[in-house]
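pipeline stage [seq->struct] | target=TonB-dependent siderophore receptor | organism=Pseudomonas farris | residues=833
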Amino acid sequence: MTVRAISKNPLHFAAESGVLRHAIRAALFSTALSVGLLPTLGVAAQGSEVTSHRYNIAAGPLSDVLNQFARQAGITLSTTPAQTQGLQSPGLQGDYSADQALSHLLNGTGLVAVSQDGSSYVLRPVAETEALALPTTDIKGFALGNALGSMDGYNATHSQIATKTSTALLETSQSVSVVTREQMDDQGSQTVSQAMRYTPGVLTNPYGATHRYDYVAMRGFNDGSVDNIYLDGLKSMGDSGTYSTMQVDPYFLERVDILKGPSSVLYGRSSPGGLVALTSKKPLYEPYHQVQATVGTQGQRGMGFDFSGPVDDDKRIAYRLTGLADQSDTQFDHNKEKRFALAPTVSIDLTEDTSLTLQAYLQHDPDGGYHGGVPADGTIHQRNGNRISPNFFEGEPGIDGFQRDQQSFGYQFEHRFNDVFTARQNFRYLDSKVKIDQVYAYGWTTPTSNELNRYYTGGDEKLHAFIVDNMLQAEFFTGATKHTVLMGADYQRRKTVVDWTSGGLAPIDAFNPVYGNSAIDFYSPTSYLRRLEQTGIYLQDLIEMDKWRFSLGLRQDWVETSDENRLAEAGRPVGTEISDKRTKLTGRAGALYLFDNGIAPYISYSESFNPNSYADSAGNPLAPTDGTQWEVGLKYQPPGTDNLFTASLFRIDQENLATKLPQENFYRAVGAVRSQGLELEAHMQLTDNLKVLGSYTFTDIEYSKSMISTLSTDTDVIENKGNSPTQAPRHMASVWADYKFDSAALDGLRLGGGVRYVGYSWADAENTLKVPSYTLFDASVGYDLGKVGLKGVDVRLNANNLTNESYVASCASLNFCYLGEERNVAATVSYQF
């Protein structure tokens, strides 16, 4: 059905013949190789003589006018809501240089724009006396400058996640949330998942207290993978069908952007629930040095450093070097977590219009902590009068272990040809090695016993992947209508060699565990070579017509997956390959209207697809999952502020979702799923001292078609139509507030607190048992010791699950429920110099 539908596409003949696909790949490789040659060819000279631009920006709130100016001028301008609150601007008409325009816009406001290097500005009071602050991240970003980099407080104004361009959140016709660096610090986020705890539509702990992977379930969809994580605009490229998944420590990040809903039109294969875009810390063009130390409960201890600044006197080259060493005992017995990571980065302004950022990320995880589940009987309710302890470890201390080494190297290149055209290219190569030995429980030995069956799984994996994304952006007017057109082509390739072993071993008493029964009855090993290759071309037009904003996009993808066995299996000689080739056309359209009072209603339609690299019981690849979404919403940004309030209604339909039972070695298609709901979000800087976040999520998700599974030679229809999938709570809500004292004896003190509510979900697809709701409290206390003479020293205390609530985070089935994270407290001392 998919191929016949695609055959109507005019690109079909070229796709089938391979001409277009191979031409695109050749172009991508050639441009990657030629990146370093562009400066010597002198292509940057075309726009270097331009010193002024023509502007026609209407009068309005100063913050809005400055945002429009920064976007049109291609500069980075850092402000705070407090600086521009209540101020108006007469707008800007005529030809101005950047400095002239800023002087005109800020005349009479008591503010001045301080240049960092000619393309990066910081807004300060005329009589600025502030002694110590984080310098502005200088991302030349002629098209992305306002959507990346550092921000004050919790309020971001722009994001690039939905459009790959710098687009105001107020003007984006899809639901987007942003977690800033300051929010991560205030809340003491130890993982990327934890950083999103106060974001609507996102369940950040579907697998409980494990920190091994950043699982994120969005709008009710959780396929057990982390395939929806992106880093610096590129897919993380882990293999979700294996244990080889990339993870980035939040200490290395500047911000986290979350896009809700399908997004294949710009990114290709993706989950219908949405995606998470991580932005790493970039070099600063002013000296910055910070070191920190952390100690906490569960034996946590760690140290980190973050150094940055210019390399040359002209400030054309800047570096950033960030490092971390951290370890913890975890809440589960006999389990440890340990991590060493380093991220060197260099940014080079080759010319005024050409920039290159070189990045590397090196991470060594000798110990990956706990990752397992236990039965609902004994966790959700008692078994034989007992409950399984939240510290229970069902494995074997002498066997269990997880080691991961990952290295990635890449660059971000950008060149502005003139006032219309800007080209960007992002590239990353990833190398990963994972070794795992795990003993896990599956079900009780008898209906009344206290002993759990145990099995062993082992893996030795090597992953190599790379991805390149080429973009050409054009900004121009047709009459009074402005167009921002983005044309792109990307290519990604991944190869994973996996060697898996499995077996059985003696059961264990869940309420009185005795370890040492470590003899394993091994089963036949398996070994596979898994490959994935994706080529895509896309076109997007963002249209500004008076107060209307339209978004139109199309993308064509060619995806190939294969699975080759390296050991003989029943019916499969060595070298037998199961492969699948798919082509897919996806689209997106949106419309939004900006009222003068800051209200912006919108409607959008978007699509997604995700090839299944899984096979059914007969060894045949499953069809790709397809997703479509309709979303209507209302955004409100009070004039003169960066506060943002968003309400969105959505409906997502998905088909061919893949799943498997733990004891089976094949996957199933679960028919169709429909998710619809409501999300509310508020980001508020209520005063200079008080920041507040609020969110509410209602998700109604159900199987819209019954699951059809193939068992042996029979077809068994499981009647679950109308039931809800597991790990999909119906209600979620959260509030976080942070207050900073600035007078009298409390000057320098910061207090923060939050509450998170997660409603009930189902423990099984047949909806026979509910996972109870739970409410968690978090708190933060900080103090700037510079107020008592220790300049640059800051202390912070974070407590998560303050009341030590014992709860089940979710269940994937009646035999796999995941215990929630118990109370943990961490103290951090940082010194900036």
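stage status: PASS
auto-comment: The chain has a mean pLDDT of 86. The longest helix spans residues 19-34.
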